[in-house]
Specification:
159 residues, mainly alpha, two-stranded antiparallel sheet, 3 helices, 46% helix, 10% strand
Length: 159
């Protein structure tokens, strides 16, 4: 059996651990930026103003009256699509998965509209805006992570 001695083993292990932490911190920052950019792009994909959108188009904001029996008590309700686009990121912890969420959340009784608009119903053709935008921007997340890894390895190699 051959024995191999490695000088500076502890320093190498410490440097590799720093590299992993450096990549994870950079990835968290990159994905946080990506989450913000996706939410911004989703809002930009939604047309200003009201009117009825055509099948296949992104939905427009609509005014809808509350239940007829409540019409006298409630004012016209506006379904605010742009204001319903949100993003969140779970606090990044070293060694744990990074989770960034971009979602559409309507308040109150409007909660089901996002799904109906995106996918359509038996009486309403789909007005997708979420998935087309998300899929268009997905390669950007990969590029951001590649840049983080490239920069971290360049710093590692420079040591």
């Amino acid at each position: 059996m051959a024995k191999i001695a490695l000088n500076g083993r502890d320093e190498l292990i410490a440097a590799l651990n720093r590299l992993g932490a450096d990549v994870q911190v950079g990835a968290a920052e990159a994905l946080q930026g990506h989450g913000k950019d996706v939410a911004k792009a989703l809002r930009a994909a939604l047309p200003e103003g009201g009117g009825v959108s055509k099948p296949g188009e992104a939905p427009h904001s609509q005014e809808t009256r509350a239940n007829r029996s409540e019409t006298a008590r409630k004012a016209v309700q506006v379904i605010d699509l742009k204001g319903s686009v949100h993003w969140a990121m779970r606090k990044a912890e070293l060694g744990k998965e990074i989770l960034v969420s971009v979602y559409v959340r309507f308040k109150g009784s409007n909660g089901f509209y996002g799904h109906m608009l995106e996918y359509g119903t038996s009486k309403l053709a789909a007005r997708p805006f979420f998935w087309p935008t998300l899929l268009k921007l997905a390669p950007d997340a990969t590029k951001r992570i590649e840049q983080v890894i490239r920069k971290a390895t360049e710093r590692f190699n420079a040591r």
